[in-house]
Design a protein that fits this description.
3 domains; Rossmann fold; single chain; 7-stranded parallel β-sheet; alpha/beta; 17 helices; binds adenosine monophosphate; about 450 residues; Alpha-Beta Plaits
Length: about 450
């Protein structure tokens, strides 16, 4: 199958594919979609970046009857970030389907609005994390008796996070004759066991083997722990404007490495699981809008991260298992692009390197790390800066309002303004770094939508 038009998709879904800008199916889509659309259960060995989301999104949209106001598709994801992206991709592909309600139910977000939304009417598509979906089921506000398609996304991650029991409980509430789709980057025995109990006559598809490997250049450096921070700064400095994600094994390293990179001049931010959801959102917005050029993250925090064009991924330390390594480096080289994975390892990490060698199927070529540390403040900062406005959707603020307030008479040039992200009670706008103070003054002194809001520079 070379084109989407060969698939039995409705005209509305063909339109959605077109609107999303997908010209040809990815490998995993080509392998799985004919079976998914025919209603078969599928288990897919598909890492992030393979196009798996669109594969199951098209599948579930295909089976929906938008005129029925009840949950017909359920997608379970390990994290809120991933669930959020999945919901967005489903909505994008469903642009031409009127009156479709896609709801997001995740832990770490307020329950009250979700209860209110369910009271209005059930969504046809539910996307959520197992904990919250389980909670809503127990409260008897969410009903899964009409589910036609069940999707377990990043099933291996959900198991790692201890969601197995919640998943079991949820699945039991869905009809037996549902279609089940299971996606997993790795294939441990536990996944096989789940597949056995939840799937029937499933087609197994997989993006495995060298032929389908994404184009990732692996560079391994042997560096002693005390030299890692300067070596990292020197290596990243060599990439100029490209943004990078640096993975650390511990929360302490996340903070220390981010501090060290800032000392060298990078616009680095830390992201770890113990941060408040709001602060995590803020960090992700700043990374996505290019006012942070190095994101230093723990594995939990980075799950589901979908940043377009992420050219460089760094392992500040090798993870203890090869699966985590695969997940980390899979953040780069998405959708057919190429990427670079840098790994720093000290002598005591060499046993871990062996496991990674097995995963890669080739011996590691060790490179020498740069010996000289860069000067403090010499590294490139991010090209943009972020202003935060303490107003959002609840104030009916839209991107156009922010743009208007900045670009009016004698204001900024539209080309100096980057991404605008509006949340419930706050909004973020990226501004060309050199213009940021100018823009801040303008927003503080002027009005947005005729009203004064608090604005600060992050
Ligand atoms: P995923 O593996 O679902 O995380 O998808 C990775 C990225 O590939 C997402 O940004 C998708 O929007 C994109 N994508 C999915 N399918 C296609 C396609 N057929 N052509 C181009 N990009 C795609």
């Amino acid at each position: 199958m070379d084109t989407f038009s060969e698939l039995p998709l409705s005209p509305a879904l063909q339109q959605g594919v077109h609107a999303a800008g997908y010209a040809t199916p990815t490998e995993i889509q080509a392998q799985s979609l004919p079976a998914i659309l025919a209603g078969r259960d599928v288990i897919a060995h598909a890492p992030t970046g393979s196009g798996k989301t669109a594969a199951f999104a098209l599948g579930l949209l295909h089976r929906l009857d938008p005129s029925l106001l009840r949950a017909q598709a359920l997608v379970l994801c390990p994290t809120r970030e991933l669930a959020d992206q999945v919901a967005r991709q489903i909505r994008k592909l469903a642009v031409a389907i009127p009156n479709l309600k896609v709801s997001l139910f995740c832990g770490g977000t307020p329950l009250a609005p979700q209860l209110a939304s369910l009271e209005a009417h059930d969504p046809q598509v539910v996307v959520g994390t197992p904990g919250r979906v389980q909670e809503l089921l127990r409260k008897k506000v969410l009903h899964l008796g009409g589910v036609r398609v069940l999707v377990l996304d990043e099933a291996d991650r959900m198991l790692d996070m201890g969601f197995e029991e919640a998943i079991d409980e949820i699945v039991k509430k869905t009809p037996q004759n549902r279609q089940s789709l299971l996606f997993s980057a790795t294939y441990p025995d536990e996944i096989r066991a789940i597949a056995q109990t939840m799937l029937r006559d499933a087609l197994e598809v997989g993006v495995a083997g060298a032929a389908h490997k994404p184009d990732i250049e692996q560079r391994f450096f042997e560096v002693e722990p005390a030299r890692k921070q300067p070596a990292l700064a020197a290596l990243l400095g060599g990439f100029g404007d490209d943004s990078a994600v640096v993975f650390c094994n511990t929360r302490k390293d996340v903070d220390e490495v981010a501090d060290s990179l800032r000392h060298y001049g990078f616009s680095a931010l830390a992201l770890h699981g113990e941060m408040e959801q709001r602060d995590r959102d803020e960090v992700l917005v700043r990374f996505a809008n290019r006012s942070c050029n190095v994101l230093v993250a723990s594995d939990v925090a980075a799950r589901g991260l979908d940043i377009e064009d992420l050219g460089i991924v760094v392992n500040y330390e090798l993870p203890s298992d090869a699966d985590t390594f695969q997940h980390r480096v899979g953040r780069t080289a998405r959708a057919g692009k190429s990427g670079i994975a840098i790994s720093l390892a000290s002598a005591r990490e060499l046993p871990r390197a062996q496991r990674i060698e097995e995963l890669l199927g080739t011996p590691i070529q060790w490179l020498r790390a740069p010996a000289a540390a860069p000067k403090a403040g010499s590294a490139p900062p991010a090209p943009m800066a972020t202003l935060r406005i303490d107003a959002g959707k609840t104030d009916k603020l839209r991107p156009g309002d922010v743009l208007g307030a900045l670009t009016g008479d004698a204001g900024l040039n539209a080309k100096d303004i980057g991404k605008i992200a509006i949340f419930a009670t706050r909004s973020y706008v990226a501004i060309e770094r050199k213009q940021a103070n100018n823009a801040l003054k303008r927003l503080q002194e002027g009005k947005i939508k005729g009203r004064k809001f608090r604005v600060s520079k992050l």
